[in-house]
């Protein structure tokens, strides 16, 4: 799957965002090592602690369908925001620190960074072995 297609799927997912409080529509698309793709959008809750980011929704959908190895992830917001720290931490559970994390904006600008660049000194499952 091309990076363009992954972007299109992330953008598509953002249209289903439930974000009545922040008004920030976020979409994500995760590609697994087996080539399956899962989409996610941010889902806010009036009890703010119940809010979940688009990246985690996509990852949890993948994992709940039996796909625990993530190869690529794309995050779309109008402003091109990077993933938050909680989402980066969740990514370490299902991907190596070499995971390519791409975040793009409305104008088509993109940045791609390794997970390990975004979350330095990551706490990974290896620490619990
Ligand atoms: Zn997040």
Give a structural overview.
The chain has a single domain (3-128), classed as Cytidine Deaminase, domain 2, CATH 3.40.140.10. Helices cover 29% and strands 22% of the residues. It is built from four helices and five strands, in the order H-E-E-H-E-H-E-E-H. It is globular and about 40 Å long.
Produce the secondary structure layout.
Blueprint: H1 3-14, E1 27-32, E2 37-41, H2 54-64, E3 70-76, H3 85-94, E4 100-104, E5 110-114, H4 115-118
Parallel strand pairs: 3-4
Antiparallel strand pairs: 1-2, 1-3, 4-5
Bound molecules: zinc ion (ZN).
Helix-strand topology string: HEEHEHEEH
Main beta-sheet annotation: 5 strands, mixed
Percent helix, as a range, is 25-40%
The overall strand count is 5
The secondary-structure class comes to alpha+beta
In the CATH hierarchy, the architecture is 3-Layer(aba) Sandwich
Total DSSP helices? 4
Q: What is the alpha-carbon Rg in Å?
A: 14 Å
The CATH class is: Alpha Beta
Report, as a whole number of angstroms, the end-to-end distance: 34 Å
Tell me, what's the shape? globular
Summarize, please.
The protein is an alpha+beta fold and 129 residues long. The protein contains four helices and five strands; from the N terminus they run H-E-E-H-E-H-E-E-H. The chain has a five-stranded mixed β-sheet with strand order 2-1-3-4-5.
């Amino acid at each position: 799957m091309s990076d363009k297609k992954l972007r299109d799927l992330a953008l598509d997912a953002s249209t289903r965002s439930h974000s009545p409080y922040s008004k920030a529509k976020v979409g994500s698309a995760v590609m697994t090592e087996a080539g399956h793709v899962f989409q996610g959008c941010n889902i806010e809750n009036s009890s703010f602690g119940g809010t979940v980011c688009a990246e985690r929704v996509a990852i949890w959908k993948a994992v709940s369908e039996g796909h625990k190895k993530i190869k690529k992830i794309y995050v779309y917001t109008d402003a091109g925001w990077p993933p938050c720290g909680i989402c980066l931490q969740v990514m370490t559970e299902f991907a190596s620190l070499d995971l390519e994390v791409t975040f793009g904006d409305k104008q088509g600008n993109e940045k791609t960074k390794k997970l390990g660049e975004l979350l330095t000194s990551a706490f990974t499952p290896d620490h619990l072995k």
